[in-house]
Amino acid sequence: MSIEVITQLAWGAVAPGLLGLIAFLAVWWSRAPARSGAGGRARSIFRAAAGTAVLAMGYAAMHRLVLGRTAFPPARSDEWFPVAALVFMLLAHGVYAPGARPLVRWIMMGLLVAAAGWASASNLFRTWEAAPIVAHLALFAAGATLAVACLDGVASSGSQGAEAQQGNVRGVLALLIFAVGAHQLLTIGCHTMKLGQVPQIIGAMCGGAALVWLFRRGLTFAGGPAATGAAVVCLALFQGVLFTDAPLAWLYATLAVLSPVCFACAGVLTARRWPGFKGGLAQSVAAALPITTGMAVALATAGAPEE
């Protein structure tokens, strides 16, 4: 691996990580605990909206810094990521508003990710028949919605006090494992460093958020941030399937999506027996299993990543 490639990968991790650290710290600077009543709800809504904006707008800025300037309106598939992140942010502000029904939320998310997938691959789809287009978009929307639902469920777990703090950090951790795993599978398995840096940016910002959580335990990815970050990662996996020559790209994408599913399922199974650190460790191990499986397969057939 050349020095230029190593430098680009390092820059793609350090810059978003610093941005995530500074921006999330700014949002959760106050140590004031959540209050009951209208004041507490207003504070929670503001922080969820601000956290979503930090992740989406921070990603858009880091995409330009790490991957280069993009045209608007987008002309290439990779230029759709900043636009998609901002659209996901706007949707999250709407579907996570107080009183929004979960069923409506997930239907809207499925439709939006399908629309983002179609827009980002429209140049390729012009040469396809209708049936495979519908099949690819349906599978993508189903997988992305499942990943988003699991991550949001993990981030929203817990009620108050220590339980809420555990839910907060596990939501950040689940998205971090998902993003880092997708980065590795896209880079090594699908041989595309450019697409691999999309989830790398999300993962680095999650790393910054995890550092903030160490001394601002109220930080949470519930109410939008987890959904926005997961949707961007899923879009990168979808493009990895469509635009790379890796014969096992669908396998890598499926294993990556199974990571947040395993994290959430392990949380349900271990909630009573291991409610604290052991439970979080078990969830992390469960989430890492599909990623590790994909990496084992990818390393056996690894080639040099494309610039």
Keywords for this structure?
mainly alpha; 307 residues; 0% strand
How many strands in all?
Answer: 0
Low-confidence spans = 31-37, 159-164
Class of secondary structure makeup: mainly alpha
Largest sheet: none
In DSSP terms, counting alpha (H) and pi (I) runs of 4 or more, how many helices?
Answer: 11
Q: What is the string of helix and strand elements?
A: HHHHHHHHHHH
Averaged pLDDT: 78
Supply Rg. 18 Å
Total individual domains: 1
How much strand?
under 5%
Report how far the terminal alpha carbons are from each other.
11 Å
The shape, in one word, is globular
User: Residue share in helices?
Assistant: over 70%
Please describe what this structure looks like.
Helices cover 77% and strands 0% of the residues. The chain has one domain (3-29, 36-300). It is mainly α and 307 residues long. The protein contains eleven helices and no strands.
Helix/strand layout:
Layout: H1 3-27, H2 37-67, H3 80-95, H4 102-120, H5 122-125, H6 130-155, H7 161-189, H8 193-213, H9 225-243, H10 249-270, H11 277-300
Helix pairs in contact: 1-2, 1-8, 2-3, 2-8, 2-9, 3-4, 3-9, 4-6, 4-9, 6-7, 6-9, 6-10, 7-8, 7-9, 7-10, 7-11, 8-9, 9-10, 10-11
Please provide a brief summary of the model.
By secondary structure, the chain is mostly helical. It has eleven helices and no strands.
